[in-house]
Amino acid sequence: MACEIHPLNNLRVLEYLGRELHADEAARGRWYAHWVAEGLAAIEKMLAARPGPGPFCLGAAPTMADVCLVPQVFNARRYRVPVEPYPSSSPWWTSA
Q: Model's pTM, two decimal places?
């Protein structure tokens, strides 16, 4: 999460897309949505294979994985990227 998704939703990167590559807001949104969906799909796959149940990434208590996931979910929602396709990684944020 911290290396694959986070750098791509950084405002500096999104501004670069517009300023240097002349991508309009819609194109930047599509670009971001593609990469956050790729990242969340990978996280979903990992969490679906975890050893035990729990509302957090690795079980009953939050860990650094949850700390890294929260901003990615916030940004996905900010850019209107659907999070419903990721049920294993989203039980605690779908009601927020």
A: 0.78
Q: How far apart are CA 14 and CA 32, in angstroms?
A: 8
Q: How far apart are CA 64 and CA 42, in angstroms?
A: 17
Q: Supply the pLDDT for residue 27.
A: 92
| 8 A C-beta contact, residue 95 and residue 77 | no
pLDDT at 94 exceeding the cut of 60:
no
Question: In this structure, what token pair is assigned to residue 76?
Answer: 């996905």
> Residue 71, class by beta-carbon neighbours within 10 Å (0-12 exposed, 13-18 middle, 19+ buried)?
middle
Which string of b and e fits 10-49 if b means at least 16 CB within 10 Å?
eeeebeebeeeeebeeeebeebbeebbbebbeebbeebee
